[in-house]
Design goal:
The complex is a heterotrimer of chains A (98), B (221) and C (544).
Chain A (H helix, E strand, L loop, with lengths): L7 H22 L6 H21 L7 H25 L2 H6 L2
Helix pairs in contact in A: 1-2
Chain B lengths: L16 H36 L1 H8 L4 H26 L3 H31 L15 H38 L8 H25 L10
Chain C lengths: L18 H5 L4 H29 L10 H36 L8 H23 L13 H5 L4 H28 L12 H32 L13 H35 L6 H14 L15 H29 L8 H24 L1 H7 L3 H31 L5 H28 L13 H31 L54
Classes of the chains: A mainly alpha (98), B mainly alpha (221), C mainly alpha (544).
């Protein structure tokens, strides 16, 4: 791994993108999109998190090993979410049928 | 000790600096993975209860101050920028700029906690802290109490992380100042940066999940 | 006797004798010794609780212990043996000692973190003892809500923090090992040349790092609910105790693999050495460790078939649970294939290894019974389950630990133990173990519930058998502890490589010097390069 010194303007652009993302998130919350409110908010949040990880945290320039571990954290968290919700979201089947 | 000649500190267990740098970076990322799952369990609880009681969470969320939460989000994002610039300065051996940026980051972190303090005290005043004195005006107060249990658990744990970040930064400023005359290892500040950006990421998710589901504009959740 | 004793101060044991040099050591070998001493104390506490439990169960009446005392006894038994003995046992002792030696490194990647982990662990252990002294805990090792949060008046918060600290120590160890194995390997030591013990430790560390944070926060939430009234699991607030069980088992099922995977790594080393053969299907054994670690994270719901979990989720968990048996069986078959046509020598470590294979197979197969939802409903919360997981955790994990301790004892301490006593204790432990737990399968299948201090009279014969077996098991263990301690002072001095084993740890002097190797070794051959020409493997205790 070598030292990656990015130009200041990259950081500033990322910062601006994050601020714009924040503004969009707040604006979307004022609109009535039903279930989509949450979906849009989470999509923006994931995008913001990715930008922070890739540029501020230099993940884009990191070793493959680092990327695998970062991915593993998210992957196993999703396993936790998916299998647990697999329980909570199918309980009503037993009550109401499919 | 001249600026250029000094060997950077190399642990006895390492062969060379490159190995040391990689070991610390990978180690920090693995630590952040544990943090992802640490917070992840709380998010899991949030998902379960929000899917069980969407309307009650909607109503309870309306008690939170969107403006203060948004301001705190902006503050944390800005502190992430200054932290990134501090790391950059360290890599370029500009110790004065590095200290400046760290101090700025600490300032933002402190401002975040101050705002958080005001938010918390207003919740206490309005009897929104879970427990015997909890008193929610709307329907299904017990589910609102669950919302506030999650709110305090998640933002509390996050706040502790901010506090720890400030303490680490104090130590970093001291270290940078003490070693100002020599070429410094940028690993400590880089690892702190990784930690700080992670704290920022957590808040990026907390803000919309806790503050922005409530009766805002015409939204119904 | 010794004519070429190394001068004092050259090996890690004699580098410095002061207490401070032990308590502030950064040497992974000394930290391993510190851990060994600490977890032995917890083995003693948890083991004596087991004996008290077995004594109570000699008779159908609850006559020795009151029912609430009995609850506390089995809670102490479970909490200490799982969190303070089994989980740190092989990783923190053998792993700490051997990983740097096996990969040709001077130390682990983060020696200070390593020492810190011992202090954090000891803090947790102290809290655990405090919880015991101030009245104990009666929730069982699972801390299920809402009993633990809303009803139990015992020292739940203290115990929860004890486990929380132990968990943090475990995370530190796992993180350290991951980075060490990735970044500190000697030149030429590629992944396909690593000893299988290292693969197993890596897989274990992955589980420690990914799973432990979840239980850490879950236990904190119990404490928060009891002290701050932040009631994430509180049914009064619409909380769902089953969520607690999901979070608990997301860690605690993989935690079983934290106990068994390192043991499997040890067994691979022992089988190869005492059969004088390269491990059959090295790649399969290596990857099966990773497969167990990953699959271990998707099966936790099989602990919750009767909890009120959706039966559709139960079906998925049931199917996924069956998948774990595949990599486990791959290992068993490969070990047996390794022994096939090998020059097998039955030294005490090998006796433990053979015992492991038999007992783990029984434990694993009965696990398949339990993964079937229909059968699980029948035997849920009976002694069938108790017997099953003791076959895995004692018959598997502890036998692997004892086997490893016996195998590397000469390297760790520089002394040989009396082989004849070693064999005796291995056989006693094997026999005692089966006497203890085979009857419990039957009792459980016939319907004897677990966690009660009195039972129907028809089960008494089986329980007497079980208690008698426990006394044999305990004597075997006590004999082992006695001669191992004896050997520290009176044992014959060990040479560099008493078993004629392959691996970098045997190439350095005995006991190893503080820096492990005089020069960083270069690896040119694959692991387990045992060959037929490689003499018959007579004990070779030449010293240099």
């Amino acid at each position: 791994m070598s030292v990656h010194i990015l130009p200041v303007k990259v950081y500033v652009r990322v910062f601006v993108a994050l601020m714009v993302g924040l503004a969009i998130t707040v604006w979307v919350a004022t609109q009535d999109l039903g279930t989509w409110n949450t979906i849009v908010a989470m999509t923006i949040a994931v995008a913001k998190a990715m930008v922070v990880a890739l540029f501020f945290m230099h993940l884009r320039y990191s070793s493959r090993l680092t990327m695998i571990w970062a991915g593993a954290g998210v992957f196993f968290l999703l396993i936790l979410f998916a299998l647990t919700m697999g329980d909570f979201d199918t309980r009503w089947f037993q009550v109401k049928g499919w | 000790m001249s600026v250029t000649e000094r060997e950077l500190e190399l642990g006895h267990q390492f062969e060379d600096l490159e190995q040391q740098t990689e070991a610390y970076t990978v180690g920090m990322w693995v630590f952040l993975v544990t943090e992802v799952l640490f917070f992840g369990a709380l998010f899991m609880a949030y998902i379960v209860y929000r899917s069980m009681y969407p309307q009650d969470f909607f109503a309870a969320s309306g008690e939170l101050d969107i403006a203060l939460g948004g301001l705190n989000t902006a503050i944390l994002i800005t502190s992430s920028l200054t932290m990134a610039l501090a790391v950059r300065s360290a890599m370029l051996d500009r110790w004065k700029a590095q200290i400046g940026y760290i101090l700025a980051t600490m300032g933002f972190a402190f401002a975040f906690l101050v705002i958080k303090y005001f938010e918390y005290s207003s919740k206490f005043e309005h009897h929104l802290f879970p427990g015997e004195h909890f008193d929610f005006k709307g329907e299904n107060g017990e589910h609102a109490e669950m919302f506030f249990s999650l709110y305090f658990a998640m933002t509390g744990l996050h706040g502790i992380h901010v506090l720890v970040g400030i303490l680490i930064m104090v130590a970093l400023v001291y270290r940078t100042w003490r070693m100002r005359a020599q070429r410094q290892d940028y690993i400590p500040i880089e690892l702190t940066g990784l930690y700080w950006h992670f704290v920022d990421i957590v808040w990026i998710f907390l803000y919309p999940l806790l503050y922005l589901i409530g009766p805002l504009g015409s939204g119904k959740g | 006797m010794s004519h070429t004793d190394a001068p004092k101060g050259t090996d890690y044991l004699h580098a410095d004798y002061s207490i401070k040099s032990w308590l502030l050591t950064l040497d992974h070998k000394r930290i391993a010794i510190l851990y060994l001493i600490t977890i032995s104390l917890f083995l003693a506490i948890g083991g004596s609780m087991a004996l008290i439990i077995r004594m109570e169960l000699l008779t159908p009446e609850g006559d020795l212990l009151m029912s609430d005392t009995y609850n506390k006894a089995f809670t102490v038994h479970g909490v200490t043996l799982i969190f303070f003995f089994l989980i740190p046992s092989i990783p923190a002792v053998l792993g700490n000692f051997l990983i740097p030696l096996m990969i040709g490194a001077r130390d682990v990647a983060f020696p200070r973190l390593n020492l810190l982990s011992w202090y954090v662990f000891t803090t947790g252990g102290t809290l655990g003892v405090i919880a015991l002294v101030v009245g104990g805990v009666d929730t069982g090792w699972t801390f299920y809500t809402p009993y633990s949060t809303s009803f139990s008046n015992t020292a739940v918060v203290t115990a929860v923090f004890a486990v929380f600290f132990a968990g943090f120590a475990s995370i530190m160890t796992g993180l350290n090992f991951i980075v060490t194995i990735h970044k500190m390997r000697a030149p030429g030591l590629t992944w396909s040349r690593l000893p299988l013990f290292i693969w197993a430790q890596y897989a274990t560390s992955v589980i420690m790092v990914l799973g432990t944070p979840v239980i850490a926060i879950t236990l904190l939430l119990i404490a928060a609910e009891k002290t701050l009234r932040i009631g994430i699991f509180d049914p009064a607030l619409g909380g769902d105790p089953i969520l607690f069980q999901h979070l608990f088992w997301f860690y605690s099922h993989p935690a079983v693999y934290i106990m068994i995977l390192p043991s499997m790594g040890v067994i691979s080393e022992l089988i190869a050495c005492f059969s004088r053969k390269r491990i059959f299907g090295y790649e399969f054994v290596a990857y099966s460790s990773i497969a167990i670690a990953v699959l271990g994270f998707v099966v936790w719901g099989h602990h919750m078939f009767v909890s009120g979990q959706s039966m559709y989720a139960g079906m998925v968990f049931s199917v996924l649970s069956f998948l774990v048996s595949i990599p486990s069986a791959v290992k068993i078959f490969n070990w047996i294939a390794t022994m096939h046509k090998g020059q097998i020598r039955l030294d005490s470590p090998m006796l433990y290894a053979l015992g492991f294979i038999g007992l783990f197979t029984i434990g694993g197969l009965t696990g398949l019974f339990l993964a079937v939802m229909g059968l699980d409903i029948h035997v849920h919360d009976t002694y069938f389950v108790v017997a099953h997981f003791h076959y895995i955790m004692v018959g598997g994990a502890i036998l692997g630990f004892f086997g490893g301790i016996h195998f590397w004892w000469p390297k760790i301490t520089g002394r040989l133990y009396p082989e004849i006593l070693g064999k005796l204790s291995a056989v006693l432990i094997f026999i005692g173990f089966n006497f203890t737990f085979l009857p419990q399968f039957i009792a459980g299948y016939l319907g004897m519930p677990r966690r009660t201090h009195s039972y129907s009279e028809e089960f008494q014969v089986l329980n007497v058998l079980s208690s008698a077996g426990a006394s044999i098991l305990a004597s075997g263990t006590i004999i082992a502890v006695a001669y191992l301690l004896w050997s520290l002072w009176y044992g014959e001095k060990a040479g560099r490589n008493p078993w004629n084993a392959k691996g970098l740890e045997w190439e350095t002097s005995t006991p190893p010097p503080t820096t492990n190797f005089e020069r960083t070794p270069t690896v040119t051959e694959e692991a387990y390069a045992y060959g037929p020409d490689d003499e018959s493997g007579e004990v070779n205790n030449e010293r240099d």
